[in-house]
Amino acid sequence: MDDHKENIDNGLRTSTDLNVNMSTASEPEKLNSCRKTSTADDPDPLPGSSPQTASDFSDPVYKEIALANGHINRMTKDELWVKLSELKLDTSGVKGVMKTRLKSHYKKQKLKQSAHPPDTYYDYICVVDFEATCQEDNPPEFHHEIIEFPVVLINTHTLEIEDAFQEYVRPELNTQLSDFCVELTGITQKTVDEADPFHQVLQRVVRWLQERELGTKHKYILLTDGSWDMSKFLNIQCRISRIRYPPFAKKWINIRKSYMNFYKMPRTQTRLSTMLEKLGLQYEGRPHSGLDDSRNIARIALRMLRDGCQLRANEHMHAGRLLNVPSSAPLEGAPPPLNPRTRD
């Protein structure tokens, strides 16, 4: 729901009727996305490793990477375009994106030569972007219920969208969609009236994930556009549906943080439409369709992976609260998905 998710955030923070803990951790200036902790001219730590000390960069390859980064920082946009073209790399996007892409390419080449190849920890990334009931003024007492559950499956090895899941959901509290909600999402009253309640749809999501052997044969993680989908919408929906919050959704990649940190973009330029624009992409489909939004978020994630970003979980839920995942935390995939359990 992109922009509208931000508009409803204040209403969600004051929601207390269902005893939902809406407190969140503040987002620090130095974010832990993509495990980038270096300065513009310094190389990143070894891919997949814990944060490094200065002595860990004694390998001459890092000096070469740092020198190359400094040279790339001084290049004009035209010079970047020419160099990317020579290397047969993507030339789209703003100057900052082009610089990051060229640095990443050079770093990967040097690390391969020095027997330190970049890793791909997750086999699959599941992009989720819920649509929920809403009103134009979003009164504080209004409870947003999930009405569309999409999942877009990214294969991190082939760098392609491999599959997708989508189902609509029948709300239980606010059963009548507002005119504003219908116009925004394109989801009609007839569609939700004919849909199953959330706990049944979640069961089919779990079965869909299990059939693809995620969490058993393949390592995977969820990815969202912002914090709201898991920390707000799913958190509240589970309480409404009287089920426990699913363990496989307790940790995820917030792509806005990853994008901002990797390309060194300001927070104001992390809306879905802006991220696409800065990467030289155009939105495909209908805005505020959960499935179309998920596909476009997946396109951003794929571009970041191709540009060398090692996407890692950077947010998680603990005791009903939204927290950041420390950059020093061990890398872990989501657990095997299990059918939802009822609340005690």
What is the element layout, followed by pairings?
Blueprint: H1 3-7, H2 9-13, H3 60-73, H4 77-86, H5 95-113, E1 124-127, E2 131-132, E3 146-155, E4 160-168, H6 179-185, H7 189-193, H8 198-211, E5 220-224, H9 228-240, E6 251-254, H10 255-263, H11 272-278, H12 290-306, E7 315-318, E8 321-324
Parallel strand pairs: 1-5, 5-6
Antiparallel strand pairs: 1-3, 2-3, 3-4, 6-7, 7-8
Keywords: Cytoplasm, Exonuclease, Hydrolase, Magnesium, Metal-binding, Nuclease, Nucleus, Phosphoprotein, RNA-binding, RNA-mediated gene silencing, rRNA processing
Pfam family, one: SAP
Cofactor: Mg(2+)
What would you say this structure looks like, in words?
The model is unreliable at 10-33 and 35-56 (pLDDT under 50). α3 runs antiparallel to α5 (95-113) and α4 packs across α5 (95-113). Strands 1, 2, 3, 4, 5, 6, 7 and 8 form an 8-stranded mixed beta sheet that branches. This protein has helices at residues 3-7, 9-13, 60-73, 77-86, 95-113, 179-185, 189-193, 198-211, 228-240, 255-263, 272-278, 290-306, and strands at residues 124-127, 131-132, 146-155, 160-168, 220-224, 251-254, 315-318, 321-324. The protein is α+β, with helices and mostly antiparallel strands and 344 residues long. Helix content is 36%, strand content 12%. α9 (228-240) links the parallel β5 and β6 (251-254). It has 2 domains: 3-30 and 121-324, 2-Layer Sandwich (Nucleotidyltransferase, domain 5), CATH 3.30.420; 38-113, Transcription Termination Factor Rho, Rna-binding Domain, Chain A, Domain 1, CATH 1.10.720.
